[in-house]
Amino acid sequence: MNDKIANSSRILLAICGISLFAVLFTPIWRIDLTAPQYPEGLYLLIYADKLAGNVDIINGLNHYIGMKTLHTGDFIEFKVLPFIISFFAILFIGAAILAKRKLMNILFAMFVCFGVLAMVDFWRWEYDYGHNLDPNAAIIVPGMAYQPPLIGFKQLLNFGAYSIPDIGGWIFITVGAVSLTLVIREWKAKKKNPVYNKNSLAILACMMMLSACSTAPEPIAIGKDNCSFCKMTISDQRFGAEIITIKSKIYKFDDPHCLITFINEDRIKRDDIASVYFANFNKPHNLIDAKEAHFLQSPSFRSPMNGNIAAFTHQDTLEKAVLNHYGNITTWKDMQK
Q1: Global confidence as pTM
Q2: 86, 135, 282, 283: least CB-packed within 10 angstroms?
Q3: CA neighbours within 13 Å on the CB side: how many for 155?
Q4: What is the mean pLDDT of residues 53-62?
């Protein structure tokens, strides 16, 4: 099966990759603090490689309640995160170039795993930040922890803390959502419209050509089909006959006499005839190739147009018919003379 993804999916993957490079220069997360003594509010910005915002003021406040001070150099994440983001950006662009569905699915799974691990690490850092307090701090509230919310709002003493994604974080979320959409869309497209490789297409084309040029007979509908020569409605299936052209056009007849006359009068060129079929006298629903049929002409048959010729599948059935219908045994070759 062809594993290629749609061009629109490739474009979106490339855009996702380029967007991830932008995350290197924009804040990924932010924590806002509000309190009566800080009506303008305080904020902490988390980039891929640093902390920014009101870091010094927040560190000063944290000192009183025993929380650790924040310094970019204390976090190993800021050293590896830019490389991880760049790695995923390159992978997304590579997936767009290679256009492989399997690669796109693997990339999506890796990106989701990275997102989950990143949030777990962020929560772990917040837990340590809010629970590992200095026992010699100036202000100690028994049983109080100052862990910021992972996402959303939380009241910490007289401070309200809001933790939400920033520009880079929303880019991450959007890339994940787009990737999920592409994975689902490509899966549905593959399931609904399977794409064949070149060999399969060639085989399919050959089958279609063979089907289009089929010389298989078509059942004769008694009381509905008309004879192509005399235009009478075919009423006795035992004497029905067909001509099939090399272009798969079918002419139906109510009597072998009509078929033979149709040919002899050049209503159709002999070179255009692919095959000729006659109804099996004993089993009229079956049609026999003229080259394999055995024929008996007898006045007792009383066929619709007095051709009085019946076709049989085997010599022994023909010989049995002769016992009941006296007449002349003939062949398809002799019938055309």
Answers
A1: 0.57
A2: 135
A3: 2
A4: 92
Quick: pLDDT tens for 267-316: 999 999 999 999 999 988 889 999 999 999 999 999 999 999 999 999 98
Structure tokens at 221: 């509908």
Cα–chain center distance at 183: 10
Listed by start position, the domains of the chain span: 7-198, 237-335
Helix residue ranges, H only, the chain: 7-23, 55-65, 77-98, 101-131, 167-192, 198-212, 256-264, 315-324, 332-335
CA–CA dist 164, 153 (Å, integer): 9
Between strands 294-297 and 328-330, the pairing is: antiparallel
> What is the arrangement of strands in the sheet containing 241-245, beginning at the earlier edge strand?
250-253, 241-245, 273-279, 287-289
| Residue 49 DSSP code | S
Determine the Cα–Cα distance for residues 42 and 57; give it in Å rounded to an integer. Answer: 8
The answer to whether the beta carbons of residues 104 and 93 sit under 8 Å apart is no
| Contact present, 11 and 99 (Cβ < 8 Å) | no
118 — pLDDT class (breaks 50, 70, 90): very high
Map residue 300 onto helix, strand or coil.
Answer: coil
Contact call for residues 20 and 110 (beta carbons, < 8 A): no
Give the torsion through C-alpha atoms of 69, 71, 76, 81, to 10 deg. Answer: 120
User: What's CA 180's distance to the chain center, in Å?
Assistant: 15
CB-based contact 99:5 (threshold 8 Å) = yes
Cα–Cα distance, 193 to 173 (Å, whole number): 30
> Tokens standing for 64?
């009183």
Q: What is the DSSP letter of 75?
A: -
For residue 100, the model assigns a pLDDT of 94
Query: What backbone torsions phi and psi does residue 42 show, to the nearest 5 degrees?
Result: -125, 155
